Amino acid sequence: MIYEFRTYTLKPGATPEVEAMFAENLPHREKFSKLTAFWHTEVGPLNQIIHVWEYKDVLERVRIREESAKDPHWPPPIGKYIAGMESEIFFPFPGSPELKPGSNGPVYEMRSYIVKPGTLPKMWELAREKLPERETLSPLTCMMYTDSGPLNKFMHIWAYKSMDERMAIRGKAVETGKWPPATREFLVTMENKIMLPASFSPLQ
């Protein structure tokens, strides 16, 4: 199973209109495969939307994208609002939760690290040891690594009921030693996004 994360940076103020056009046109796209998640950023890089699509493998992704491109209703006509686009293919680490419809949010935190080449297995090993303790505080949404896009990228997403809950849980995780794992020596860069789901996102 693979997940494609498509991140579009929009012109300021365009997010509500773009989400409305996605909502209007989404039924045409979902004739081919279902949307996995759709967020917009609230903290971190602003004016971004992130839509996620699940595929069995790369060949299925190519086939479905070719088929959906023949539908005149897809993609929605949002080109004039886009300032930048990127696509990343992620593989979930073994044992990572699958991205399935649910209501663990509505606040989602995406933490991404570029790590030193060859250290992704060790990153996962150390994180996996800590996950049972960390998940006593709040649920992990997913933990993945890139196969295309920026390489050596380690990404994990956590769900919270509010920003206040996020602050409290992160403080408690550090105070009790439940998180983070001892991975700092492997990190090259770090990025953080706080995301909120669109009304039509399967993950709420």
Shape: globular
Largest sheet: 8 strands, antiparallel, barrel
The class by helix and strand makeup works out as alpha+beta
Mean pLDDT: 97
| CATH topology type | Alpha-Beta Plaits
* Proportion of residues in helical segments: 25-40%
Proportion of beta-strand residues = 35-45%
In the CATH classification, which architecture applies? 2-Layer Sandwich
Give the beta-strand count: 8
The ordered string of helix (H) and strand (E) elements is: EHEEHEEHEEHE
Count of structural domains: 1
Rg, Å, rounded: 17 Å
Q: Output the CATH class name.
A: Alpha Beta
Distance linking N and C termini: 22 Å
State the strand order across the main sheet: 1-3-2-8-5-7-6-4
Please work out how many helical segments DSSP would assign: 4
Low-confidence stretches: none
Overview features:
204 residues, alpha+beta, Alpha-Beta Plaits
Account of the protein in words:
The chain has one domain: 2-Layer Sandwich (Alpha-Beta Plaits). The protein has helices at residues 15-29, 58-69, 120-134, 163-176, and strands at 2-10, 35-43, 48-55, 82-92, 107-115, 140-148, 153-160, 187-197. With 204 residues, the chain is an alpha+beta fold. The mean pLDDT is 97. It has four helices and eight strands, in the order E-H-E-E-H-E-E-H-E-E-H-E. Helix content is 27%, strand content 36%.
